[in-house]
């Protein structure tokens, strides 16, 4: 059911002719409203019969007109309190139109010129629209005649629109080009700054700066009229001394603010700053203290900088410099000062005194007449030198009888100040006053120190001597308790400290509370109204414990008390009301200081019974846990529930000043709290709540107070933990601020806990603890705490099952303590085969006790067992000297340390015990082994840079007589260099390592003290590791692939430091792996790896690579066999192939002929040989280079194309000579020479020439058996070419020297062939073996043909 609107009685209505009087009274109603009310009430009582009722009605209407000022929450359409005024101005002068408008929500004002909107962007600098503190203004700069028009301000909100209009007339002076409506130009009165109306708004607060930093003191204000060219006059003072603008103090006034900037803070800048602005009514002032603390010292413990450096007694050759000492609280005492000087305009400082001066004054000598100087001072103590002070003002060294003199002749520091008294001031400051010292001795001021009660360290409250005996200490922690002391200061230093003040808690000074507000109706039954209101914003430093309610009929001025006794709750049911009548209410709050001022009268409320089915409004909206992005809204259930019970609530939110509310919960919540999340930090919000029942959604609650989404400075959250001493599970909160009347109110699911047996609450100082007596699942939930009489200190914590279980386990561990172990019982095998059983505790006390139990029997320290412990490391151990099979079993250690105890066991049986016993026996044997010569490092391998494998070992405890032997498969190896055991290391080189080096190697070391053996098996993985190590070095040394042509094909070669076929090498063609075959042959030597392409074709063109892998890294070398490279290689291959074919098929002597023959005359000589060639060669015999023809004496035969012979019957000395045979076909031939010597019967057989063996005389029928000996002048015997897998790359043939015109070419061989004149027997086989090929002669070489005669 909607509430009927209130109708203003006729006697309160205002006539049109009374508007001017109403405006006059309204301007002063704020100052004299209370006085007027009292006066009117008195007049009505004393002169009721004589005063005309019309005068009373006029006063009542005036009061009713002021009521909207106190009813901001009532929706109102816009209304102009101050309307626009018409203006007539001269051309090129500014004009300002301003008005004041009210309404709820706040109206939006738009400006129009002749009905068209005013757009400041259309003419930049022409128009300026402002809205400051409810005053809307339009400024037109440098008016032109065209600006003459009707201007209007239109105010709009959701409840309606209001318009105020005014005409602006712009006139031009005579003779300016246009006619002027006025014949004369009036004289415009000059506006002086002192005639402006100035109201200070946001004022600078107590500030804190740091030496060397910067700070700005700003005070915003409203200036009427606000003329850009006429700013108000502002003066700044520090400690009542006028400041002047300069480098150290920058001042500005304008833009609605006065600003003082101190860009280079020093302790000289500390003091009480006052802003004084001259106004129409006098002056407007504001003061606040600026504290400047010491900057970080240059050295830890060094004192702060001195201050107030000034020059006195200025003369032509000296100046007396004086200063104020810094405050020393926790630093060492000051031992003296250094004074520095600097000529004006220079940055070079010169120290004036060699030794520190003890007092705060010093005469500086050696100045130059007429020069200007600055001075500065540095303080010294045992820790170091302070930062320099701010430099003094410029001083010129001149005699001046009028210069300022430093007064005072008393020496010594002043006496200590008298009694110090501290009293409450605000929630973060304390007022301190004291008695002056009895012996001031030219007092400079005082330093005030403070400390938290219970703490030992003092902190400075001021950093510059304060001249008065009273001081306000700011920046204290609310609710904390402090004590203060004072020291007096003069040029000789600081006095003794005064006695401490009595401890005082930081609380606001007692005062009556401010007025309650937000009076709202919760229910009405036709005879009574239930009211609710909000707490005073300021409690006055004491708990609000009483409320008093007054009421009156809305048509009356007389208030009547509702309650004689105090109401402690913020709800009240007012009885005995008349149904249908409108009533107004006001509330006063009281505390121990008294009853405060009453609230503003409520809106008229009609006493009419509520009959709607929906519930009434919720009330008492409050906030908890306000953070940067969330807060919790709480409220109370509506008093009027409607036709059915309340089933839930909806919460709506909007930013302050906005009418667009957003519902936070889609479904109604049954509890009376809701957490709002996703807030914008720093933004201000308002909330309202609607209750829901079966009939629908009820009336909205009164709007909440605006709340800023920002956490209080120093806010801490609730801590859930376990007490380390008792094991109690608790929740605790440390308040960031508190006062004497504050209380911690704990709630579960936002319902006050009160006296509950499951929990107990304790408070100590700023911390409150909620302890669970018997925690279990019933204690799960959301816990919150609110600190009363603060600015909203609160917090919450959700206790989950997992967190509770974790804390229960920790609680059990604390209540049933155990000795925590870093390591449980373990064992280790020591030298000599001893076994150590040990464990390590986190911490042990000196009173710890323990015992070892082995197989259920306690073991004590004695023979065979050593038991000990170390408190520092927490180790408890037992050492068993003789570990045998009898020691198998279970080992246990039991520890008692105070209340805590624990035990740890180790089961040492089965395979585990066998392993331990084996290790113990091994260590025992090792100990015995090391008594004689032994290997300190057993055999291991290394690979040198030339790929030689070295088997190395290290030996110890040797002497000169100690022997060392190497063995492979029990066969001793005698190295070239005998091992030197005295060097401590021995090594066996294995060059050209390959699979042949498989085997078991052994090193034996021994002397008269004993023998030790080291075995190294080179097989399996060890062999692979060695090969990989060789491949690592060889792969890194591998050259690029080189191309070499042979008669069989094209060969790619890779040279490296060492190669063996066991290395993991892979040849690839176009990224495809190559397998060794008849087409692609793969092989190598010790110096290189090669791959040969037999009978190459175009298919074999492409990219080739070799990959050498060492198991970790792969070394790759590549060659591109394509293009011109392939063409050149293929042509060379064809050439070599043809030459090899010719060499294979040429005519040659393959065996049978000697080089030298000695025969007796009359014997028959038969020279027979086997020849070969394809086609069958021609055979020609020569004697002394003359062809031999076949005769009876000399018979020449050639049988079967294979056997050629020359038979001389009955030789004579004439047959001696040089015989030769020439065998040739179309591919070439061979020329072989034989020397024949014939001696007579009876003559001595001629000795063979040097290099010739002695040969017996041959019979005519026998073939001389001559030893094959190479010949020097004759063509050398042929050396077969090695097979590709065993030989080096064939090299081109070279010419051999000889007596013949040319000789048959032979290839180079790794082994030189000796030469001899003796004939060399030929091989009986005419065809070379499969694995042997003949060398290919170059193209220009031909078989020699002797000349024919």
SSE blueprint:
Elements: H1 19-46, H2 53-66, E1 76-82, E2 87-90, E3 95-104, E4 108-113, E5 116-117, E6 127-132, E7 135-140, E8 149-157, E9 160-171, E10 197-200, E11 207-210, E12 215-224, E13 234-238, E14 241-242, E15 250-254, E16 257-262, E17 271-279, E18 282-293, E19 307-312, E20 318-324, E21 334-343, E22 350-351, E23 361-365, E24 372-381, E25 384-385, E26 395-396, E27 420-426, E28 429-434, E29 445-452, E30 459-460, E31 470-473, E32 481-490, E33 493-494, E34 504-505, E35 517-524, E36 529-534, E37 546-553, E38 560-561, E39 571-574, E40 582-591, E41 594-595, E42 605-606, E43 619-624, E44 630-636, E45 648-655, E46 662-663, E47 673-677, E48 684-693, E49 696-700, E50 707-708, E51 719-722, E52 729-734, E53 744-748, E54 751-752, E55 759-764, E56 767-772, E57 781-787, E58 794-799, H3 801-815, E59 821-829, E60 835-841, E61 849-854, E62 857-859, E63 865-870, E64 875-880, E65 889-897, E66 900-908, H4 910-929, E67 934-943, E68 949-956, E69 963-968, E70 971-973, E71 985-990, E72 999-1007, E73 1010-1018, H5 1020-1037, E74 1042-1045, E75 1049-1055, ...
Parallel strand pairs: 2-9, 11-18, 83-90
Antiparallel strand pairs: 1-3, 3-7, 4-5, 4-8, 6-7, 8-9, 10-12, 12-16, 13-14, 13-17, 15-16, 17-18, 19-20, 20-23, 21-22, 21-24, 24-25, 24-26, 27-28, 28-31, 29-30, 29-32, 32-33, 32-34, 35-36, 36-39, 37-38, 37-40, 40-41, 40-42, 43-44, 44-47, 45-46, 45-48, 48-49, 48-50, 51-52, 52-56, 53-54, 53-57, ...
Helix pairs in contact: 1-2
Structure in a nutshell:
The chain is mainly beta and 1349 residues long. 9% of the residues lie in helices and 40% in strands. The chain is elongated and about 195 Å long.
């Amino acid at each position: 059911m909607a509430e009927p609107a209130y109708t203003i009685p006729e006697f309160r209505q205002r006539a049109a002719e009374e508007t001017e009087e109403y405006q006059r009274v309204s301007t002063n109603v704020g100052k004299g409203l209370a006085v007027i009310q009292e006066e009117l009430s008195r007049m009505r009582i004393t002169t009721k019969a004589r005063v005309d009722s019309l005068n009373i009605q006029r006063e009542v209407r005036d009061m009713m007109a002021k009521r909207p000022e106190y009813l901001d929450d009532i929706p109102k359409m816009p209304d102009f309190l101050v309307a626009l005024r018409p203006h007539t101005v001269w051309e090129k002068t500014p004009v300002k139109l301003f008005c004041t408008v009210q309404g709820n929500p706040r109206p939006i004002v738009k400006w129009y010129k002749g009905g068209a909107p005013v757009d400041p962007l259309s003419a930049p600098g022409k128009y300026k629209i402002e809205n400051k503190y409810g005053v809307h203004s339009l400024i037109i700069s440098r008016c032109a005649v065209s600006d003459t028009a009707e201007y209007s301000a239109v105010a709009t909100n959701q409840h309606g629109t209001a318009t105020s209009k005014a005409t602006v007339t712009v006139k031009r002076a005579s003779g300016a080009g246009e006619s002027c409506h006025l014949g004369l130009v009036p004289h415009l009165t000059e506006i002086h700054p002192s005639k402006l109306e100035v109201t200070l708004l946001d004022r600078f607060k107590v500030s804190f700066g740091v030496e060397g930093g910067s700070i700005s003191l700003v005070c915003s204000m409203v200036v009427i009229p606000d003329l850009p060219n006429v700013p108000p006059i502002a003066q700044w003072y520090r400690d009542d001394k006028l400041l002047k603008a300069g480098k150290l103090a920058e001042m500005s006034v304008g833009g609605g603010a006065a600003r003082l900037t101190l860009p280079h803070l020093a302790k000289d800048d500390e003091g009480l700053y006052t802003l004084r602005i001259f106004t129409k009514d006098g002056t407007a002032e504001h003061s606040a203290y600026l504290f400047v603390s010491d900057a970080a010292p240059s050295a830890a413990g060094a004192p702060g900088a001195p201050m107030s450096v000034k020059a006195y007694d200025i003369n032509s050759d000296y100046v007396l410099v004086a200063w104020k000492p810094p405050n020393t609280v926790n630093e060492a005492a000051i031992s003296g000062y250094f004074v520095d000087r600097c000529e004006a305009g220079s940055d070079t400082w010169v120290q004036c005194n060699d030794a520190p001066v003890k007092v705060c004054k010093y005469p500086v000598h050696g100045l130059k007449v007429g020069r200007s100087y600055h001075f500065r001072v540095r303080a010294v103590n045992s820790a170091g030198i302070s930062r320099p002070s701010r430099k003094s003002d410029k001083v010129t060294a001149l005699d001046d009888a009028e210069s300022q003199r430093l007064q005072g002749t008393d020496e010594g520091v002043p006496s200590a100040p008298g009694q110090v008294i501290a009293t409450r001031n605000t929630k973060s400051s304390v007022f301190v006053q004291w008695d002056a010292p009895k012996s001031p001795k030219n007092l400079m001021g005082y330093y005030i120190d403070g400390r938290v009660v219970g703490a030992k360290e003092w902190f400075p409250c001021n950093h510059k001597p304060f001249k008065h005996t009273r001081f306000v200490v700011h920046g204290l922690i609310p609710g904390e308790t402090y004590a203060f002391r004072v020291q007096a200061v003069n040029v000789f230093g600081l006095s003794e400290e005064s006695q401490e003040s009595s401890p005082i808690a930081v609380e606001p000074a007692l005062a009556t509370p401010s007025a309650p507000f937000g009076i709202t109706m919760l229910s009405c039954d036709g005879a009574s109204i239930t009211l609710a209101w909000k707490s005073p914003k300021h409690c006055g430093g004491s708990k609000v414990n009483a409320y008093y309610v007054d009421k009156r009929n809305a048509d009356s001025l007389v208030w009547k008390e509702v309650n004689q006794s105090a109401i402690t709750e913020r709800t009240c049911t007012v009885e005995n009301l008349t149904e249908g009548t409108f009533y107004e209410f006001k509330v006063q709050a009281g505390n121990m200081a008294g009853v405060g001022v009453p609230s503003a009268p409520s809106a008229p409320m009609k006493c009419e019974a509520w009959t709607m089915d929906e519930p009434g409004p919720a009330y008492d909206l409050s906030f908890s846990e306000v953070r940067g992005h969330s807060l919790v809204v709480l409220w109370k259930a509506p008093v009027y529930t409607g036709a059915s019970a309340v089933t839930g609530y909806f919460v709506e939110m909007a930013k302050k000043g906005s009418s667009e509310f957003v519902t936070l919960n889609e479904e109604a919540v049954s509890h009376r709290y809701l957490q709002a999340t996703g807030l914008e930090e720093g933004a201000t919000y308002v909330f309202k709540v609607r209750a829901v029942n079966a009939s629908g959604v009820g009336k909205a609650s009164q709007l909440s107070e605006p709340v800023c989404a920002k956490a209080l400075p120093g806010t801490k959250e609730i801590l859930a933990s376990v007490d380390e001493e008792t094991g109690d599970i608790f929740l605790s909160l440390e308040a960031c601020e508190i006062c004497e009347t504050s209380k911690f109110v704990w709630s579960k699911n936002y319902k006050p806990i009160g006296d509950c047996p499951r929990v107990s609450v304790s408070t100590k100082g700023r911390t409150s603890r909620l302890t669970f007596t018997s925690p279990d699942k019933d204690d799960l939930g959301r816990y919150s705490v609110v600190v009363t009489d603060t600015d909203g200190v609160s917090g919450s914590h959700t206790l989950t099952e997992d967190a509770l279980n974790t804390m229960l386990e920790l609680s059990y561990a604390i209540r049933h303590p155990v000795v925590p172990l870093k390591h449980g019982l373990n064992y280790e095998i020591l030298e000599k085969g001893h076994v150590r059983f040990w464990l390590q505790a986190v911490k042990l006390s000196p009173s710890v006790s323990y015992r070892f139990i082995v197989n259920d029997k306690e073991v004590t320290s004695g023979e065979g067992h050593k038991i000990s412990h170390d408190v520092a490391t927490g180790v408890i151990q037992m050492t068993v000297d003789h570990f045998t099979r009898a020691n198998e079993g279970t080992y246990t250690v039991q520890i008692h340390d105070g209340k805590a105890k624990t035990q740890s066991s180790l089961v040492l049986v089965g395979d585990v015990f066998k392993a331990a016993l084996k290790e113990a026996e091994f260590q025992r044997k090792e100990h015995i082994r090391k008594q004689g010569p032994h290997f300190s490092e057993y055999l291991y391998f290394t690979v040198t840079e030339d790929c030689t494998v070295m088997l190395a070992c290290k030996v110890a405890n040797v002497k000169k007589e100690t022997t060392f032997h190497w063995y492979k498969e029990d066969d001793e190896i005698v190295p070239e260099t005998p091992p030197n055991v005295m060097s401590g290391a021995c090594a066996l080189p294995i060059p050209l390592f390959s699979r042949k080096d498989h085997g078991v190697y052994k090193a034996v070391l021994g002397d008269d003290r004993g023998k030790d053996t080291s075995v190294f098996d080179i097989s399996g993985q060890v062999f692979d590791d060695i090969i990989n190590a060789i491949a690592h070095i060889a792969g890194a040394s591998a050259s690029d692939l080189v191309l070499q042509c042979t008669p069989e094909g094209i060969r790619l070669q890779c040279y490296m430091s060492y190669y063996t076929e066991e290395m993991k090498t892979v040849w690839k063609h176009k990224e495809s792996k190559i397998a060794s075959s008849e087409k692609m042959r793969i092989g190598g030597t010790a110096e290189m790896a090669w791959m040969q392409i037999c009978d190459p074709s175009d298919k074999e063109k492409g990219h080739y690579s070799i990959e050498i892998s060492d198991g970790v890294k792969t070394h790759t070398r590549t060659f591109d066999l394509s293009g011109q490279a392939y063409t050149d290689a293929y042509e060379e291959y064809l050439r070599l192939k043809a030459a090899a074919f010719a060499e294979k098929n040429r005519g040659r002597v393959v065996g049978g002929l000697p080089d030298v023959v000695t025969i007796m005359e009359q014997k028959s000589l038969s020279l027979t040989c086997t020849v070969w060639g394809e086609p069958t060669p021609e055979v020609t015999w020569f004697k002394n280079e003359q062809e031999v023809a076949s005769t009876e004496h000399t018979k020449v035969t050639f049988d079967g194309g294979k056997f050629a012979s020359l038979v001389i019957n009955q030789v004579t000395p004439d047959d001696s000579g040089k015989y030769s045979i020439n065998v040739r076909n179309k591919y070439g031939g061979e020329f072989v020479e034989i020397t024949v010597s014939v001696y007579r019967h009876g003559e001595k057989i001629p000795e063979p020439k040097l290099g010739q063996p002695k040969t017996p005389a041959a019979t005519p029928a026998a073939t001389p058996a001559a030893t094959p000996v190479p010949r020097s002048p004759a063509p050398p015997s042929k050396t077969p070419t090695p097979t590709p897998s065993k030989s080096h790359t064939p090299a081109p043939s070279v010419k051999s020297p000889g007596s013949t015109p040319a000789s048959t070419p032979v290839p180079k061989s790794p082994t030189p062939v000796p030469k001899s004149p003796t004939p060399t027997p030929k091989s009986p086989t005419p065809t070379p073996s499969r694995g042997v090929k003949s060398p290919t002669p170059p193209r220009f070489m031909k078989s020699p043909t002797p000349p024919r005669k």
